[in-house]
Every structure is written in C-alpha cells, then in structure tokens.
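Throughout this chapter, every protein is written as a compact record of paired, labelled lines. The reader may check this reading against the record printed directly beneath this paragraph:
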Amino acid sequence: MTAAEGLDRILVSAITREASDVHLSSGAPPLMRLVGALTGVPEFPEPVPAQWLESALLAIMSPAQRQTYEEIGEVDLAYTLGTGARFRVNIFRQLGGVAAALRLVPSAVSTLQSLGIPAIARDLALKPRGLVLCTGPTGSGKSTTLAAMVDVVNRECPLHIITIEDPIEYLHTSRRALIHQRELGRDTPSFASAMRHILRQDPDVILIGELRDPESISTALTAAETGHLVLSTLHTQGAAKSIDRIIDSFPAYQQNQVRAQLADTLQGVISQTLLPRAQVAGRVLATEVLVHTPAVANLIREGEVAQLYSAMQAGSSLGMHTLDQSLAGLVAGGLVSRQVAQGVAVDPQGLDLVRVQVQDLDAESWTHHADQQAYARRVY
C-alpha cells in the first residue's frame, strides 16, 4: 500500500464517523475532530512516520503547490478522494517535521434554513450592491454560510457570480446564475491580483474567501462602491469587532476614508459561534447580526462603533440581534446550557435578563430543523 493510499484510508475512516477535521503530524497518531473535540482514529492508533507522511502529502500536491511548500513551508489546497469527498487542506512544517489539517467539505451546499442561519441572510444575499461579511473564529462555519448565500443567488437571479477562494471548497453548478470559481495559486496568484482585474469580467456578485490585508479590503470596498455585491469573511468575533478590524488594518491617515466607505457600502454582518448542545451530541449555532440603517451608517462614519451593540439590541424588527439575545434563546429552548452560554456571552451576569426579540432564534423554530443535530456533527 502506497503512502497516498494509506492517507485515503485514514480520511475514509474519518468520513465514516462523520468527523469534521483530520489532523496529521509526523511522529504522532492521526486525530479527528468529532463534535468539536479531538479524538484518535481507531484503525490507526500508531504514530505516523515522518517520511511516510511527507510522501503522502507531497503526492496530493500539484507541482506549483510543491514549490510553494518548499519555499515558504506551508501551502493551502483542495483534495478530492476517489469517492468524490472533498477536503480543504493546509500542510505546514513544525519542529522540523510536517503536519496537515484537513477539513471535510460537504458535497452538497445546504440551505440557510437547514444551517440555522437567521432569515435576514437571504435578504442580504439578494442585495443589489454593497459589502456583506460573515465573521467568526476558525471552524465556525463561515464558508458554509457564504456557500449557502451564493446558492440563493444562483437559484433565483440571472447574474454573474465570481468567487476567489484559497482553496475552492464548495463546487457550485450554474443554475439561473453564471458562476466562475477561481482558486489562488492555480487560477490567480493572489486575492489582490484577482480583484485588480475582476471588474473587467462583468461580475454582479463577488465572493472573496477572506479579507486578509489592506489591499484586498480596499479593492473589496471599491467593488462594493461601484455597484457590486461583495461577500467575504473575517476571522473576528462580533459585528463591532469586525468593523474595528477592517479600520485598524489601515494606517491612521486612511482610517477616516475607510470609515466613510464602510458606512456607505456595508449591508450587513453575520457573526457566528458554534456551541456544544446541552443534552445530546452535536453543536448549535449562535449568531449576531448587524444590518445597514442610516443610524448604523452614521455610527460607523463617526467612529462610534461601541454604540452598534445598542443598535443591534433595538433593531429586532429589521433582523438585527446581539449574541446575548441569540444565546438567551438557545438557553430558553434547552439547546445550550447556561454555563456554556455565559462562557461566550458579552454580559454573562445579565444573560438571564436578555429579552429575546428575534423570531428566527426562537427555540420553537429550531425544532423544525430535524436534521440540525446530524448536520452539525457532519459539517461543523
């Protein structure tokens, strides 16, 4: 059995157990993530030899990816098994050895409803222009949410969608929309390079896998200003922190301009957090939503980002809510324990006093998603 075949066997074993991630390190046994926790792969209890692992990982790289790995010591790529299962892969060096994190990408794009995403996400996906952000820590399902939003546009609108991803995770088939998916390293050298030329490709909707640096942020804001809908992610927690992160990415002399651009273009922020379920195995999604209003735009423009939390608390009729309101709904429905909710709440002591005003997060609405628990185990 070759090293590549052995790697495939490890991945198949993880898929069978509905793991979300596989972690491989030279000199250590393979691990997989089940319902948020790392555990061993029963069929492979022995440490992985360094030479075997490097051989297996080199076998799934293209020549260009091998060159990148040799030059900088890490590389991102997508890997597809013979069964059709796809993984997002990051390969990196550590302590002189090699390691890899492989995340299973579901073969089908799920609906926003089945994911438990607030209904306002569909409205944001159908905006004619502007910037929509999906934020949260690593592994919180940001890419899954964006894929579901792209699918909404694909099914309902005769538009041109271009995605720029690193690597491509979900594969979309053009339906009413025309979709072109571009991968860093294979189709374009960088997010910034792709964005410099994208406006000549006649897009209506642009998905940027991640806003990583001032250049990609600046070009995304420019695209949103010129009449395009731009969808992207940030590794931040909370709507206000996401806005601060964007502004703080720029030098002081540019920050007023960026605030003005954000105030004019930002349509909404969906911030996600995955929490363990209270009584059964699985995880549940808690969210925070900020939606553009004249008052919100003015707070951003004037640099009063801290006051956005109050705007979200009072904006339930517009689809807004805070993380604490979401958590209160989950606790009231028995889906999340009070202790877990208090561990991530903005105001742990006042969590019991939060009045849930968002119908989408009412405990009863969750009961309509019979597949929520199984989906959370498989995807998140």
Notes: The longest helix spans residues 142-156. The chain has a mean pLDDT of 89. The first strand starts at residue 21 and ends at 25. The radius of gyration is 21 Å.
